[in-house]
Amino acid sequence: MNAKPDWSIADADELYRISGWGAGYFRLNADGNLVVSAPLRNGKTAEIAMLDLIEGMEVRGKSMPVMLRVQNLLENQIKLINESFSKAIADSNYRGKYRGVFPIKVNQQAQVIEDIVRFGKPWQHGLEAGSKAELMIALSMLSEPGPLIVCNGYKDREFVELGLGMTKLGFQVIFVIETPAELPIIVESSQAMGVRPVIGVRAKLFSRVSGRWNATSGDRSMFGLNASQLVGVIDGLKAAGMLDCLQFLHYHLGSQIPNIRDIRTGVREACRYYVELVEEGAPMRFLDLGGGLAVDYDGSRTSAIHSRNYALEEYCVDVVETIQSVLDEKGIEHPTIVTESGRSTVAYSTVLMFNILDVTGFSDASLPADIDEKASDLVHNLMESYRMLSDKTVQECFNDAVYYRDEARDGFMRGQLDLRTRSQIEQIFMVIMAEVQKIADRNPDALSEPEVLKTMLADIYYGNFSVFQSLPDAWAIDQIFPVVPLHRHLERPTRNSIIADMTCDSDGKIDRFPENGEVSRALPLHEIREGEEYYLGAFLVGAYQETLGDLHNLLGDTHVVSVYINEDGSFDFVGEVEGDSVADVLSYVEYQPNNLLAQFRQTAERAVRNGTISAGERQHLVNAFEAGLRGYTYYEQ
Ligand SMILES: *Cc1c(COP(=O)(O)O)cnc(C)c1O
């Protein structure tokens, strides 16, 4: 075995913080493999090594990269939020219920919505739609009345009439008014169709929250009604004789709210609106807090933006108790509490799995074999820095080395330094940096900016995936996702790395990793071994990533495989969605694969006529082209 006594599973867990972000769903087993610990319906858990799942996929012809969905985790997240609210409600003698809805925009994939509807049935977990297309999904997927269908977003007449039709069928459709312009459409259409709809209002709170999405909250938020617009809607409903339809108050402070205090402040302000609506005479029944329940991506359990300083139970208890205390003061009936948790519902269940194709090392430089007496001064100066290097001089030598390296680059630009000299200088420079790193590892205060060095020495691991397609938030908004090897955790990872993807784009990389509530610019990984695959997983990627992804470099959708882990610990591949082929992505950008093939055939045929290639060679080329069109857009073995 490769087990080294100086490295244990506990060290690996601490390094990658798996116990922190894994929420009990992911852990390392004694063999050094990363396992999914899947909650079962009988209350137990079953563990499956991710490598076993990869093996199962490869047998089924699914090569990397693969988006893995573990349905048990989604099922459990839905169960947890419903049970946690039920418990908080029972414990505090709250006299209302909880009803969850899933906001479709967070993951619109048919398989995911199907799963949510199915797993949510015991609790009548509903859906939230923010557009016409999403409403169509909600109306057809929730095939029986019961769960709430909350309609946010701009609603035109078509949208409203569809919802009203479903109300007539007994479905619990709620029309949340976001702008004053929607009111006349809802009033006129419902009168014309003879339906009494349930109407909600979206309040614009002035409470501001910390975190990345804080622009959704506060006075300048783009969404919701301000106080005077709210009065206008109340008066409009009164005038139409429809104030009895106003039963629902909604707000949404933004996604990923890391600080529980902001959640409480928001609820308290919303309760003030709720009280006022009741006093205006509206028969209020529902208070909808929107989303915001955060995911602890970095495992630090702090109020840092990628984390959260509360657990689900605390969230539920705080919400229930805050509402209760404000409304009890006024003697108002407790509403049904609605939340629209998207991120925390789906983030856990999806893992992007990919293999490493190649590595460019930066930390293995060695000194040039022979340094000429007559070599450039820069070479000698650098060698002097190297000899001077010690714990005491480390910062000075680091600064000098960077200076000489930059001088050498300038000299090369001006034509004063040749390629071989520049190469020698870069080599010596990297040797110095590696030594500096060793000193910095021993003595963390040795350097003023240790991260700079880490980035400079980080090896580039080339991953078989596209950041733009599968992890767009890592590129667009510097979202952090935990990235962890799926195996080899009995070995100490010795390389500091960043991960580049398959696009030829300098932004196509992952170079921000969680480290103790802060961001590290490099990730420790294992040395890859000849002839052996090295697999990594990017975790907590179930929310927002799939439809925000794009076709940069025409790398298409990955394969998606859903598994359900059974009570006997066996697992079923319950759904496989084939990733895009090259022909698929070409047709998305309006090429006709058949025409491309025909054109290519002609080009090859001309070459045969000119005598450049033989007819047999032509056939070979055409076959390769055809196979290419059918193939996966990612690297295939
Ligand atoms: C995006 C959104 C949500 C989902 O928020 P999460 O933080 O992902 O739970 C809920 N409600 C509304 C109105 C939204 O726009």
UniProtKB/TrEMBL annotation:
<feature type="domain" description="Orn/DAP/Arg decarboxylase 2 N-terminal">
    <location>
        <begin position="95"/>
        <end position="347"/>
    </location>
</feature>
<dbReference type="InterPro" id="IPR000183">
    <property type="entry name" value="Orn/DAP/Arg_de-COase"/>
</dbReference>
<feature type="active site" description="Proton donor">
    <location>
        <position position="504"/>
    </location>
</feature>
<dbReference type="InterPro" id="IPR009006">
    <property type="entry name" value="Ala_racemase/Decarboxylase_C"/>
</dbReference>
<dbReference type="InterPro" id="IPR040634">
    <property type="entry name" value="Arg_decarb_HB"/>
</dbReference>
<keyword id="KW-0745">Spermidine biosynthesis</keyword>
<dbReference type="InterPro" id="IPR022653">
    <property type="entry name" value="De-COase2_pyr-phos_BS"/>
</dbReference>
<keyword id="KW-0503">Monooxygenase</keyword>
<dbReference type="GO" id="GO:0006527">
    <property type="term" value="P:L-arginine catabolic process"/>
</dbReference>
<keyword id="KW-0460">Magnesium</keyword>
<keyword id="KW-0479">Metal-binding</keyword>
<keyword id="KW-0456">Lyase</keyword>
<dbReference type="Pfam" id="PF17810">
    <property type="entry name" value="Arg_decarb_HB"/>
</dbReference>
<comment type="similarity">
    <text>Belongs to the Orn/Lys/Arg decarboxylase class-II family. SpeA subfamily.</text>
</comment>
<protein>
    <recommendedName>
        <fullName>Arginine decarboxylase</fullName>
        <ecNumber>4.1.1.19</ecNumber>
    </recommendedName>
</protein>
<dbReference type="Pfam" id="PF17944">
    <property type="entry name" value="Arg_decarbox_C"/>
</dbReference>
<dbReference type="GO" id="GO:0008295">
    <property type="term" value="P:spermidine biosynthetic process"/>
</dbReference>
<keyword id="KW-0210">Decarboxylase</keyword>
<dbReference type="InterPro" id="IPR029066">
    <property type="entry name" value="PLP-binding_barrel"/>
</dbReference>
<dbReference type="GO" id="GO:0008792">
    <property type="term" value="F:arginine decarboxylase activity"/>
</dbReference>
<dbReference type="InterPro" id="IPR041128">
    <property type="entry name" value="Arg_decarbox_C"/>
</dbReference>
<feature type="domain" description="Arginine decarboxylase C-terminal helical">
    <location>
        <begin position="582"/>
        <end position="635"/>
    </location>
</feature>
<keyword id="KW-0560">Oxidoreductase</keyword>
<dbReference type="GO" id="GO:0046872">
    <property type="term" value="F:metal ion binding"/>
</dbReference>
<dbReference type="InterPro" id="IPR022644">
    <property type="entry name" value="De-COase2_N"/>
</dbReference>
<keyword id="KW-0620">Polyamine biosynthesis</keyword>
<dbReference type="InterPro" id="IPR002985">
    <property type="entry name" value="Arg_decrbxlase"/>
</dbReference>
<comment type="function">
    <text>Catalyzes the biosynthesis of agmatine from arginine.</text>
</comment>
<feature type="domain" description="Arginine decarboxylase helical bundle">
    <location>
        <begin position="372"/>
        <end position="449"/>
    </location>
</feature>
<dbReference type="GO" id="GO:0004497">
    <property type="term" value="F:monooxygenase activity"/>
</dbReference>
<feature type="modified residue" description="N6-(pyridoxal phosphate)lysine">
    <location>
        <position position="105"/>
    </location>
</feature>
<keyword id="KW-0663">Pyridoxal phosphate</keyword>
<dbReference type="Pfam" id="PF02784">
    <property type="entry name" value="Orn_Arg_deC_N"/>
</dbReference>
